[in-house]
Each structure stands twice: as C-alpha cells, then as structure tokens.
Amino acid sequence: MEKKVRTVCFDCHSKCGVILTVNDNDEIVRVEGDPNNPVNDGILCVKAFSAQEIHAHPDRLKYPLKRAGKRGEGKWERITWDEALDIIEKKIRETIDQYGPQSVIISQGTGRGSNHFLDRLNNTWNGGGKVWPTHVCLLPNLAQTHVTYGRMFHPHEACDYRNAGSIVMWGTNPIRSRQYSGLRIMDAKRNGSRVVVVDPVFRDIAAKADLWVPVRPGTDGALALGLTNLMFQSGKFLAAEEMLTTWTNAPFLVDNEARMMLRESDLMEDGSDEHYVVWDKNAGGIAIWRPESESFDRDGVKPTLMGAFEVELKDGSKKTCKTALETYKDEVAVWTPEKVSAVTWTPVEKILEMFEIITNPTDDKPSLLTAYLGACMMTSNALQSGRAITILQLLLNPPLDDKGGIYFNTFWEFMLDPKITAYDRVPPKLRLGYDKHPMYTQVYGNANIPNDVWDAMLTGEPWPVKVMISVANDPLGCFENATKIHEALLSDVLELNVNMDYFMTPGAELADIVLPAAHWSERVGNFDEELYPEPCPFNIPQKAVKAPGEAWDDWDFMRNLGKRFDPELWPWNSSEEMQLWRLNEFHLIPNGKEPITDYEVAAKQGYFIEYGGENRTTRQHEKGLVKFQTPTMRIEVYSEQMPSYGYDSPLPSYNEPFESPYSTPDLYKEYDLCLTTGARDYAFYHSAWTNIAHQRILEPWPYIELNEEDARERQISEGEWLWVESLRGKIKAKARISKGVIKGAVSMCRPNYKHECKELNLPGYSWNEANPNVLTTADGSDPGFGAAPMRSSLCKISKFTE
Ligand SMILES: Nc1nc2c(c(=O)[nH]1)N[C@H]1C(S)=C(S)[C@@H](COP(=O)(O)OP(=O)(O)OC[C@H]3O[C@@H](n4cnc5c(=O)[nH]c(N)nc54)[C@H](O)[C@@H]3O)O[C@H]1N2
Ligand SMILES: Nc1nc2c(c(=O)[nH]1)N[C@H]1C(S)=C(S)[C@@H](COP(=O)(O)OP(=O)(O)OC[C@H]3O[C@@H](n4cnc5c(=O)[nH]c(N)nc54)[C@H](O)[C@@H]3O)O[C@H]1N2
Ligand code: SF4
Ligand SMILES: [Mo]
C-alpha cells in the first residue's frame, strides 16, 4: 500500500513543503511539491527529488562506528549507540575535570535545523562554544545590521519582494540558493519590477535581470559608496528625509575632529555624555536628544538633516559641526563613478544605469537591496561593505516594517532565545579568537573564531581543544585553510573527535567516533532557524520512511547526550516533543492560543503562521513594539560602536581586500587573478550530493569559471584541466570559459567533489585535490568580526600536469 506523507525538504534554507509517497517496503516512490505550502506553492528543485536516492543509498552510514586503527587509517569497529554515548560522556567529563569546559568544542555547518539545540547541548556542560561558519555566513551581515538597527533584523532578506518596484540582488543568487525568494522576485519581475544583479559572474539570476553589474570580487563596498555619492549629489536621498530625521541618527551633530557625535556634556557643564545634539529647524538652535526617554528636551523639535552649524561649547568657544549625514556626504564625495570604476572594474555606464534603476522603481514602488546571507561580505572589508549597503538601502527610503519594504521579523530573536540556546546558563567568557575579533562574540555569544580553534588543536594554546563533536559539518570542506585543519584534526592534542553525518566524509575519516544521521525524509525535524521574508510559516514535518540501520536524527543524539549531563534541561522524550515545545512556546502560547500536545494534530495542520501574512503586525517601531537598541536608540547611520570594535570609521569606509592587485602588487605579478570561491551550485548543498546521480549529472566535474580573454591570453581551452594555485596550495579544476566572468577574476563553486558517484562512474576527490578551501585563508580577515576573505584573494592558473 502506498501512502502520502507531508513533510519539508531541508536541503537549503528554503525548507519547501514536500509530499512523499512511500510504500510498505519503506521506499520513497514519488516526490512532489506541496501545493498548499505557502513557501514554495508546490514547486521543488532537483535536490528534493533526490530524497529517494539518498534514503536508499548503499553507502549511507548505518551504525555508530569506533576507530579501530590509527586516525585516518579507515579501520572501523561497529558499536552501539549506548557505547558511543558512554565514550563521549566519559571523555567530556574527564576533559572538563582536567582542562575545563572550554576544551570541549562543538562544530556545525550551515543551518540544518538543529543549530540552536546544539548550543543548548554545549551550554549543558557550560562548554567551549561552537565552531561554525557564522564568521562568514549570515552573521557578518546580521552583525552590521545589528550595529545599525540595534537588533537582529535581516533587512536584506526580510523584504516584501513581491511588492517592490526595483530589486538589487547584491551578491546573491536566489534561483540556486533558496527558491522562496527566487519565486517571489520572479513574481515582482512579472509585475514590472526591475532587477539588478551585482556579481562578478553572470549566472542564472542575471539572465532574468534587467542589468548585470560585474564587480571585482571583494569591492562591493566601493560600489555602494559610489551609489551613495550619487544619491547625495542628485538630492534623491531627500525622499527619505522624514524617515531619516524621525528614526535615525543621521541629523545628529558630529564633532568631526573627535570623530564622535557631539554630546550635551560638550555644551554644558552638567550635560550628559549620553545625550546627543541636533539642530532644530523650528527654533534655529540646538536641541538635546535623550535616548533614555527617546525624546528631545522640549516638544516641537524638527531636526535638520543636512548642514553645518556653529555651536557654543561649554568653555565658551565656538565649533562648527556637521550633521552625521552631511559628514557622510562629504566623505563619500571622492567616490565618483570614475573612481568606483577604477576600483571595482565595473564600467561607469553600468554604475550609472544601476543608479537610474534603483532611484526610479516601477510605479514608484519601493526599491529593495538584498545581500541575503552576505556573500559579498566574505572579505577583509566585510562589515563596512555591509554597512554601506544597509545605509544605501535606508537612503532609498523603503517602507520600514511595512508592505513593500523591509520587515522587522521576530524570528531572528527566536533562534537565539536562551529558552532554546540556554545562553543564560553560561556567563560571557573567553572564546578562542575573542582577543583578535571581539565583535564576533558580542553579537553572537557562543562561537569561536575557526582559525583559532585549529591553532588551539595544534598547539594546546591558549588552551587545548581536547574534544570536538561535529554534527552536520565536514570541517575540511567548510572552513578556510583546509591544509591547516587537516593537520589539526590529526594532532594529539585533540583526544576525541566525533562526527555525525549521512555518509563517510573526509572530515569523518579523521574522527574517532562516527555517528549515522537520519535524512529529512526519515525524521520529523525541528527547525529553529527561519529565514523567510514572508509569510513566515512554522512547518511541522513528518517522518515518511525509516532511517537506515540505526541512524538517529540529530535531535535524538543531542537529547540523549544532554540528558546524561542535565536531564532537566532535556526534558523531552522524542524529537516530536521537542518540535511541539518549540511550536507552543514561541508561536501558539505568546499569541494566546491553546498549546498542541499531539504531534499528529499539529502535523495535520502542516504549518502555522502566527507572525507573518495576515497576522503580521506592521510598523512595530511606531507602535513601540520594537526598539532600536543602539546607544542613541535610533537607527545609527553614524556608529561609534564600529571604531570600538576596531573599524577605521563610524561611517562606512572601503579598504582593499588583503590580497589584491592594489594591496599586494608584487604578489599580483605572479598570482594574477582575483579569486572568489564558494558560489552555490543548483545541484549541491555545500559539499554534499556529489555521490547522488540526479545531482552529479548536472555538474559532473570540479570547475573554474574564467573570462574568455583571460583564457585566450593563457591559451586555455574549454574543459581543459587546470591547476589553480594560491599561496596556500593548489587544486585542480576544469576550465569553464565565458564572457560572463569579469575579466581578471575567476570563480570556483562551493562543492569539493568529495564523493564518487558510482552510478555515473565519476570519481570523488580527496580533501586536498579539488577543495577550494585549500586555497583560502584566515589571513586578512575582517578586523572586528573575523569574516575570512573566502571571496577575495589572489590565485594563478596553469595547465594541469600529473
Ligand atoms: N571557500 C568557501 N568556503 C565556504 C563558503 C564559501 O562561500 N566559500 N561558504 C561558507 C558557508 S556560507 C557555509 S554556511 C558553510 C557550510 O558548510 P557545511 O554546512 O559544513 O557544509 P559541508 O562542508 O558540506 O558539510 C556538511 C556535512 O553535513 C552533512 N549533513 C547535511 N545535512 C545533515 C543533517 O541534517 N544532519 C547531519 N548529521 N549531517 C548532515 C553533509 O552530508 C555534509 O557532509 O560553508 C562555508 N564555506
Ligand atoms: N543549492 C544550494 N543552495 C544553497 C546552498 C548550497 O550549498 N547549495 N547553501 C546555502 C547557504 S549556507 C548560503 S550562505 C546561501 C548563499 O546564498 P547566496 O548568497 O544567494 O549564493 P552564493 O551562490 O553563495 O553567492 C551569490 C553570488 O555571489 C557571487 N559573488 C562571489 N564573490 C562576490 C563578490 O565579491 N561580490 C559580489 N557582489 N558577488 C560575489 C557569486 O558569483 C554568486 O553568484 O545559499 C544557501 N542555499
Ligand atoms: S529550494 Fe530545493 S533544496 Fe531548497 S528546500 Fe526547496 S526543494 Fe529543497
Ligand atoms: Mo551559509
């Protein structure tokens, strides 16, 4: 007998609704999109269709394994889950006794649903926090919006795309990376919206766009500053005057010598240094802004947005102070289209055309910029580039928290809520790399800087990493500088390395215990990261088939290990109970609804929309429901927090990537191409699925994309095998030549082809043969946050020789 099971695909952040038809033999016989799910309206991409092959794959890990030979030798002994948990528990307890909890680290890759329960696991024993790719993914973007808005918003994705009049895809390709936004942007396009794509490579989204703006990798900040300059020069920013004066610190007066905002204490003996100063248009004099009451010192103040004003300081001297926005206007004046073009290698006419599109949205509908998870911020200049884009977005006057504009979605706060993460159990304390990149820990308090984790594994300094537990992460594929990671995973300092995955991976091969994981078709799941712009459903996935052998879902593992340390923190007896708790605690109870205690009942409903769609509360800031928790209690165009984290300016600025034709001209003589790594492939989810025929057939070989002129100059032909070499090492890839790559740059996609595909007779490659992260490094990371320059370094290419 066949039955249909409604569930959710977890193979990218879209989390599309799926209906699986399964039979009595535990086979998936059909995969369909769920037409009733508002995320995908029944549409699926190729990855979901592979559920059949993944579930039935003969190479799936089925039982817990313990290393039998030397590390990496490939000899394994089957053990039970109890034995595995005994070994892990014992080692964690010993480690905590001997070295302290900070010597136990958890590693995780991208959001696969269980992330924040992993935080909970680590905080169960007050552990050493996580190592995960948030130093490059999402959080550089959220960190700079956090600095700017004082909250975890995502104004670069929580956008009402369907009602926009122009949309810029700023280093993001939603057609590959998450179809929910791709579908919405295509709807907007059908409704007349114009679409701009900023990307060194012409990809599928560019083919659908009105304008492709090629940029040299890592130079997006310069482009954003150039467009900002045009906004000022044309006066078009004045459309946002009302919003900027009411909700931002753009009109605050600045002491340009001190590079700080002017304070009441600068003007008066008994003035507060937490009160700020504006020039009141109505009174023709100063007024004082008091953040604690979010009000001025008197009624009827109308702050002046632009200009320079003479104020009297408390010692009686006079000083001319510009507003923050006037200061920004002056600073970006050097970014003429010609200068931007010289830096970004974007033709001047493309810059002007982009400006024309973003300032003339169709039907006067809003103009939106999306940098999504911040691909263009995987550079040495990540946060300042991001701030330049965020502030440009504000100058374009999007409706704040309203239709057609950007939404202040609450979900970001859910993901990090201590009720899930148990952050409140662990007082803020040292994490590896905090001294170098202080901001990483302040915005997201539980993570280590990856490079410092590998150092601590290699040297035992500043403290040894003795235990690492990886769930849904292959460190060798994920993080920069794979050669160093390989060495670290073989180090004697690391005494227990655990890895939980669907398949044996290069990283798992270096583990001491390998645990088998259940695929989304085989589990109920529970996702604690929702990236939806609108309508924000909370889905209730169902288990369709049995996991192979003794594979557990990730929550089973966390719950069972967590219970051994603190049963009160892990009260649940099943993943279904964990899922229901999340639904009730964050969605139903806060909205005055009855909690649901039967999983079947919740699953029957399929999804819940309590915060988006018709239930959305708009303009929450005007209603006092959302506060901008910056020092000024306003959105901060001018941020004194940025210099406090080690950045060069309270206003967005541009710095060259750490390796580039201009920052390292000598190196550039030999390593003569700008390299960006990690663009997503439609077929793969990071390093996964090169063993699945449905997917591998679409991209059979590792490849490097390059411009036809660069190829011609080097006498390289299409499909030819090449060496790609950086100062860190070299890998191989086939040449893919086109006009659609900016001249002087090359791009390598994310997968490392770690698995062979037996069905197609295509090889797999070892960790150092085709892995772009052999080429990348943490050197030249963004100063405050530590974003590694995965998308902006230098390389050279040559013909492949054995
Ligand atoms: N050079 C370069 N490197 C990058 C990037 C880049 O752009 N350039 N991007 C970075 C970004 S943004 C991210 S988010 C990271 C992502 O990096 P990761 O998420 O760590 O991706 P993988 O290296 O593929 O390792 C993930 C492993 O988890 C397994 N897996 C998948 N789903 C599950 C599951 O539900 N449970 C379990 N137990 N296992 C599962 C897969 O089989 C795979 O082997 O990569 C980062 N690395
Ligand atoms: N199919 C699939 N979907 C995925 C994933 C996957 O592995 N596969 N991974 C998921 C994860 S964790 C993430 S973070 C998202 C990422 O999602 P996106 O950011 O949408 O996608 P990417 O393909 O990583 O990067 C987008 C574009 O950035 C371009 N780019 C490279 N360097 C630069 C630069 O310096 N400036 C600019 N402007 N553009 C640049 C690339 O050419 C690429 O086309 O995708 C998610 N969705
Ligand atoms: S876009 Fe594709 S991979 Fe992503 S959730 Fe939807 S079906 Fe799955
Ligand atoms: Mo990511």
From TrEMBL:
Q: Write out the entry's keywords from A to Z.
A: Iron, Iron-sulfur, Metal-binding
Pfam families linked to this entry:
Molybdop_Fe4S4 (PF04879), Molybdopterin (PF00384), Molydop_binding (PF01568)
Which Gene3D superfamilies does the record match to this protein? 2.40.40.20, 3.40.50.740, ADC-like domains, Dimethylsulfoxide Reductase, domain 2
Q: Which molecular function GO terms apply here?
A: iron-sulfur cluster binding; metal ion binding; molybdopterin cofactor binding; oxidoreductase activity
Query: Which residues belong to any copy of the 4Fe-4S Mo/W bis-MGD-type domain?
Result: 2-59
On the tree of life, the source organism's domain of life is Bacteria
Protein's UniProt keywords contain Cell membrane = no
Would the keyword Metal-binding be found if you checked this record's keyword annotation? Answer: yes
What family is it from?
A: Belongs to the prokaryotic molybdopterin-containing oxidoreductase family.
By what name is this protein known?
Molybdopterin-dependent oxidoreductase
